[in-house]
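Give me the fold.
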Amino acid sequence: MKVVLREDLEHVGLTGEVVEVAGGYARNYLVPKGLAVAATAANLKLVAHQKIRTEARQS
């Protein structure tokens, strides 16, 4: 299952990355704890927008 990470996770990936994880791991751990969201078109667009805003603040 493809998910977008909302936080850095050791051995999984960094914030904003789209990663492939086991379905059970995503449904039972990552999504309920708010560590990731499903990689839908809407969520990918939201993450891209958030990344742009973060980069603008850092400039």
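Residues 41-58 form the longest helix (18 residues).
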